[in-house]
User: Fold this.
Amino acid sequence: MYLFRYILNTYTRKKVINGKEYFYEMTPYYDKETKKIRYHSRYLGVSNGSGIGKVRARMPRNIFTYGPFIPVLRIVRKMGIDKMLESLLSNEDKNMLLALAIARAVRSLPMDLVHTWYEGTYLARELPCTITSQRISRLMEYIGNSNIPDRFFSLLAGKIKPESSLFYDITSIASYSSNSMFEYGHAKDNIDLPEINMSLIMERKSSTPFFFEIYPGSIVDVSTLELSLKRVENLASNMVIILDRGFFSLDNLKLLSRYGYIIAATYSRKEIKHVFSSNLRKLDSANNTFMYYGKAIFAMDVEFSIAGMELKGYLYHDIELESKERIAFHRKLREIIDAAGRAVPKTGKSAQSQQIKTIAGGYGKFISATVKDGKYVVHARNNAISQKENRMGRFLLVYKGEYTPVECLNLYRDKDHVEKAFEILKTDLDIFPLRTGTPATTKGLIFVLFISLILRLRIRKMMSESGLSRKYSIDKAFLELEKLQMIDIDGKLVERERTKKQKEILDALESISCT
Assistant:
């Protein structure tokens, strides 16, 4: 260090760092708190042989959102999704499809906003492509008119090797579109809009969807099953299909007889009613109990026939479930009786009957109402209520294969995975109402959302297994990671320092296998 002026005046200080001489102007001042002389430092420059020259500070050229793509791109690569798409599409189209799928998985962005978001993210460097509305429409049309989805299903099935039980379900997707695929059907949501039906098959062990199909909205659930199974039977060996009671029909049972299956029976058939009534007393025997996650459940094996078809199953009685169903039923019934009692009767028996039907809804068969002194007098139909109560907490699982009561129940209740997948499609990924122009663009868009669903479900599974889901929702984790940026300084990418929360999230996800 060299001093060029007196100590109490401004002076120049020289530092030698890595063989270079750096100069600073040091200005003294008196610190009243410490009662000492302190110095302000101002950088002057570096020695260049002939004097002191300032070094221009390197400014970042670009700043990219980076954090969310660390786990998502890891999943894409570990599952081989990028390689699968690379074998089906040009590099430009593959990059655009992945960018669209990731945008929906991370941010649930509509297609027309992806371009603006994409340019400010690390994806623009990792998956370079030109995203415009016209190019998106062309790509969706191309995919929808091709066999790319089928080839992708085959590649994905080869990767995950679906050899265990398969979950099958179907949902309706409403649309503002006027294209011919959307028809008025039986949707529970958006009943005033035309719709399509979407079937989905998931592999139980990995909770990975590996097949979907779409059908016109007027085609009912039971008609789609045969079409889907024919297409998927070459993708999976030793299939065991798990279905809910909505698919219980004689035709479907005949179809399922070629495979292993577990299906909940609907109470509407007389043969099922007989199974319940003839075994009601025998079921609740202490010899028929087993422990299921800390609670006792009754179960007994039953054999019966429908139209000459021999079937077997387990009849269950869940006492805890019965209690919940009974409480919910009688609470709702009391609300309906009270509402009817407060209503002002309309004129004429037909109008009054319709009024009671409107108030009671699906509970109409459990009450009767007469008019007295200008008010409804409502009575409960105890026989109908008793029949309803006898089914509460009781259900029949029909199966083909070799299962204990516990195994059969476990497999069936795991079917919630596919129901959760539909929930994610409709809420997290905002699949409807769709606004697509042609059947081909509809299928192309749903293929993109199908890949988004795979990514979203895998992140959800990793967060659950790591314990991260106890503290963060998926969206909260992604929002925290969005603060982690990548900086481009003179062509070199530098990751900014991770915060404590970002480290916690990324370390937890890194600790879990994503395949």
